[in-house]
Amino acid sequence: RHEGVQLHRIGVMLASVAGNVTRNLRRNVAASAAADQRRGFKAAVLGAAGGIGQPLSLLMKLNPLVTELSCYDVAPITPGVAVDLSHCSSPAKCTGYSGDDLKKALAGCNIVVIPAGVPRKPGMTRDDLFNTNAGIVKNLVAACAVACPDAALLIISNPVNSTVPIAAEVLKKAGVYNPKKLFGVTTLDVCRARTFVAAAKGLDVNNTNVTVIGGHAGTTIVPLLSQVKPAATFSDEERDALTQRIMFGGDEVVKAKAGGGSATLSMAYAGAEFADAVMRAMKGEKGVTECTFVESTITEAPFFSSPVTLGKDGVETIHGYGTVNDYEKKLIADMMPDLVSQAKKGVEWAGAN
Questions:
Q1: What pLDDT is attached to residue 37?
Q2: Does residue 311 sit in helix, strand or coil?
């Protein structure tokens, strides 16, 4: 009987120890999961004092995935922009930098969004911006190559069809090019397409999906209206008008602002949406797919925007654009030489500069 009591006590003690171990494990796992939830990203906005940069910085400051935000611009008001933002009651710590402090602003960044450059004025094409913005993008990306070579780089500065290839060449020269981490932001084309199609067809814009492929300038922007979800039918006149409006939505804003600037608020919104998608995927969320302009082999263009599934390391899968109708086939064929030549122009400029 004595041995039986002893065994019973030992059993109770072991059960108690096992229970404590299990509880501690659960507590540690829960604490680790909570820490992972809190552990966000250090983000930078380069060109943070500009028309796109200020509202973009505000939206990044409000994103719960951002724990630290660096705002950089050549404009001396940039530290003040950051002070202004730091009064918003969101957890992200916000610091402003200007002048020679670019590398300090970039140190330790996981994601860098670049809207820096001059805006379009009436009568200007995105290509007219090339000479000024090419140099700006080159210098900013060269600093990223040194200060945060593993960061995801999101290029907004126009002309995107050329500035993304320039960025790639700069990173190659520095020996840190990772095609999975370089993105041209074409999200605004998708936002416009969703908005215009939903309005034309009486659909809920939040549940309307339109794939937009190609590039990010005029006719290189090709909305695939045949693939709209939920399915919608368009007369030839509707299709032509919507396609034209999506392609030249930027011109609509430039004209409406009558010399006062280009699309800034909508571009900031679209840039923040894409940055959020990249961060969600980098944090481990599955099935995050967005149209974006990346190095691609699905067409003859070296860079092409199509649906891309994002992952922890940036680009995970580049998808083809699926079945298109004859109208869309012609749009793609007609714009392809321009898209190829605009990439080539960027590469050649980077080689000469």
A1: 43
A2: strand
